[in-house]
C-alpha cells in the first residue's frame, strides 16, 4: 500500500511499507527515504468465509436424537 505525497523528507514522494529479514520499514519511492518501524503488530488475515467465534449448526427438530 502506498500513501501518496506523504514523505517527511521530500514532501511529494509516495511512501510504502514493507518487511525484510530485519523487520518492518517505510520507504519513499521518489527520494529514497527509509525509516525502520518499531512496535508493529502483525495481524494475520483469516481465509474468506471464516466465521468469528463458534460455528453455528442449524438442526431440524428430528436431528440430534
Structure description:
There is one protein chain. The chain has strands spanning 2-3, 15-20, 23-28, 34-36. It is an all-beta fold. The protein has a domain at 2-36. It has a 4-stranded antiparallel β-sheet, with no helix packed on it. The protein is elongated, with a radius of gyration of 22 Å. The N and C termini lie far apart (53 Å).
Spatial ordering of strands, largest sheet: 1-2-3-4
Largest sheet: 4 strands, antiparallel
Helix content: under 10%
* Integer average pLDDT: 85
Oligomer class: single chain
Order of H and E elements: EEEE
Backbone structural class: mainly beta
What sort of overall outline do the alpha carbons produce when their principal axes are compared?
elongated
Q: How many helices does DSSP assign?
A: 0
Distance from first to last alpha carbon: 53 Å
User: Could you give the count of β-strands?
Assistant: 4
Q: From the alpha-carbon coordinates, what is the Rg to the nearest angstrom? A: 22 Å
Percent of residues in β-strands:
25-35%
Contiguous low-pLDDT stretches (5 residues minimum) are: none
What is the gist of this entry?
The protein is mainly beta and 65 residues long. The chain contains no helices and four strands. The mean pLDDT is 85.
Which helices and strands occur, and which strands form pairs?
Blueprint: E1 2-3, E2 15-20, E3 23-28, E4 34-36
Antiparallel strand pairs: 1-2, 2-3, 3-4
Amino acid at each position: 500500500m502506498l500513501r501518496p505525497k506523504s514523505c517527511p523528507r521530500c514532501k511529494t514522494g509516495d511512501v510504502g511499507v514493507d518487511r525484510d529479514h530485519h523487520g518492518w520499514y517505510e520507504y519513499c519511492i521518489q527520494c529514497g527515504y527509509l525509516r525502520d518501524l518499531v512496535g508493529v503488530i502483525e495481524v494475520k488475515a483469516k481465509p474468506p468465509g471464516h466465521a468469528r467465534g463458534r460455528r453455528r449448526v442449524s438442526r431440524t427438530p428430528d436431528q440430534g436424537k
